[in-house]
Structure to design on (265 residues):
């Protein structure tokens, strides 16, 4: 289930283990509105839904529990990983603003001394400000996917800012738990160890993620049963956004939904 502007996507696993998809397009994201629409589907059919993947939004949780009482709720792993990636980028951005302030101070000092400002260049030709700006994309990726220049830039970045390496390692550790674990009990143990690492690191943003995982631990652990994700809903969301972008917005919502139904239903 995805918290989108116009739709809700549900994955249905029947008694025989076959997966299917129920797509309901709903104008808006209010739980009450979505519940009214979904409840038009017969309860007998809704009771066949055995598993729902969703984000951590309270409205989505309410919709799933109210409309599909027999379904097991699974928090999408990619939403959890996204929180960790955002926390890592938050630390990078903090250091970037500090580097910009330092450069501005150096420029002002050079002007007062009537000297030409010469920025300090690193081995790869970047200034600290440029290094932090250009490190954004490779921090989202695993190190084995880095290019040669990205590997060099990462070495410089982590030497200058050890906290960024700690945060990057925490992010990759969390990703590896979801990618390489097939057992719920083992997943629980690995997440507990990850929480310990977060506490030792002392990053406020990662402590917030740790608390979030704790508050949703049951639905997060449910992922390890069937390794279900919200990929289908997110893919559908991307298609809707791309379709809408072509027309630079939507005036006639009913006709827009009609066209979506004809193309994607």
């Amino acid at each position: 289930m995805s918290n989108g502007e116009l739709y809700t996507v549900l994955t249905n696993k029947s008694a025989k283990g076959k997966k299917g998809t129920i797509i309901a397009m709903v104008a808006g994201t209010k739980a009450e509105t979505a519940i009214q629409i979904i409840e038009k589907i017969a309860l007998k059919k809704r009771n066949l839904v055995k598993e729902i993947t969703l984000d951590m939004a309270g409205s989505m949780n309410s919709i799933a529990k109210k409309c599909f009482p027999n379904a097991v709720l699974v928090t999408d792993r990619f939403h959890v990983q996204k929180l960790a990636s955002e926390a890592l980028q938050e630390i990078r951005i903090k250091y970037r603003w500090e580097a910009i302030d330092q450069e501005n101070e150096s420029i002002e000092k050079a002007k007062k001394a009537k000297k030409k400002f010469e920025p300090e260049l690193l081995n790869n030709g970047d200034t600290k400000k440029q290094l932090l700006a250009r490190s954004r994309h490779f921090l989202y990726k695993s190190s084995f996917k880095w290019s040669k220049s990205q590997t060099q830039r990462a070495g410089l970045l982590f030497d200058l800012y050890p906290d960024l390496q700690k945060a990057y390692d925490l992010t990759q550790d969390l990703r590896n738990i979801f990618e390489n674990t097939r057992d719920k009990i083992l997943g629980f143990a690995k997440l507990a160890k990850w929480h310990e690492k977060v506490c030792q690191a002392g990053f406020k943003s990662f402590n917030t993620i740790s608390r979030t995982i704790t508050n949703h631990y049951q639905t997060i652990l449910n992922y390890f049963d069937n390794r279900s994700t919200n990929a289908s809903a997110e893919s559908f969301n991307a298609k809707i956004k791309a379709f809408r972008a072509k027309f630079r917005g939507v005036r006639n919502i009913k006709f827009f939904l009609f066209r979506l139904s004809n193309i994607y239903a």
